[in-house]
Every structure is written in C-alpha cells, then in structure tokens.
Amino acid sequence: MVCKACTCLINGQARQICGIPVGQLKHTDEVITIEGLADSVRQELHPMQQAWLDIDVPQCGYCQPGQIMDAVGLVTDIHAKGRQVTEADLDLFRNECRCGTYPRIREAILQGAQAMKIPTHHRVHKKRRRRKHRGRGAHKHS
C-alpha cells in the first residue's frame, strides 16, 4: 500500500504526485496541493479542511494533506455523478494513517461532502412514473 501522503489534485483528480515524473505533466495541467486547496474555492479554508478541524481528525499530521486531498477528489468524483457519499464509498477510501484516526476521518469526509454540496447542474433528477390503477385483482400479461 502506498501511504498517499503526497496526494494532490491534477486536473481535479486525486493523484499521488510522488509517482509522476515531472516530464509527464503538461503546462496546461492544473495541479492543486494542500497549500492551494482553500484558494481553489476562494475561502479561508476548503470545506474539507474545515471538517477536518471540526471533527479534530489530526494527530501526528503526517498523512493529513494526502487524506484531505484524496477526500476532496473522492467527493468531487461522487458529486459529479450526481450522488451523495455513502458508507460503501468510505470503505474504499484507502489512505494510511499511522495514528489510526479512521473513524474521525470517515466522519470528516461525510461532513466535508455535505459542505461541498452537489452543484445544481450535476444533480440527477428522476422523473416519477405514475402507475395506472388497474383495479382490484388486475394483472399485466406479457
């Protein structure tokens, strides 16, 4: 398992920068590190960073930048699909934490995801289908 402490966002996708040669990056690639995350939303702190502080996730701090950046990537991907983060999504979140603050990390991701909101243009609206009343005992035959 890779520790993922170096995770940053490259073109909106969480990537471990330690395994990407600089020559593979293009001048048009957008690279956001933990230091630039708040600027990406034009706030003092990104909602995920604020959730980390609210839930009191950090202990030693070694993994925190990677955890936060990977969480932002995860939530962004899920929201782009028009859905909310589920427990099953969190089960797939595989960043190493030496201090074992996994329950607080999960809680912070859920709080941060709520604060990030699904952009309206990505929401999936399901049409309700009306069922025709067939009367008592009516069956549909193929």
The CATH topology is DNA polymerase, domain 1
CATH class: Mainly Alpha
Radius of gyration equals 20 Å
Q: For the residues shown, what is the average pLDDT? A: 85
Along the chain, the helix and strand elements come as EEEHHHHH
Query: Helical stretch count?
Result: 5
Q: How would you explain this protein's 3D organization?
A:
This protein has helices at residues 37-40, 47-55, 64-80, 87-91, 102-116, and strands spanning 7-10, 13-16, 31-32. It is mostly helical and 142 residues long. It is built from five helices and three strands, in the order E-E-E-H-H-H-H-H. It starts with 6 loop residues before the first strand and ends in a 26-residue tail after the last helix. The chain has a three-stranded antiparallel beta sheet with strand order 2-1-3, covered by helices on one side. The longest helix has 17 residues, at 64-80. Helices cover 35% and strands 7% of the residues. It is globular. The protein has one domain: [2Fe-2S]-binding domain (DNA polymerase, domain 1).
What's the arrangement of secondary structure elements?
Layout: E1 7-10, E2 13-16, E3 31-32, H1 37-40, H2 47-55, H3 64-80, H4 87-91, H5 102-116
Helix pairs in contact: 2-5, 3-5
In short:
The chain is mainly α and 142 residues long. It has helices at 37-40, 47-55, 64-80, 87-91, 102-116; strands spanning 7-10, 13-16, 31-32.
Keywords:
mainly alpha; DNA polymerase, domain 1; 142 residues; globular; 5 helices; three-stranded antiparallel beta sheet
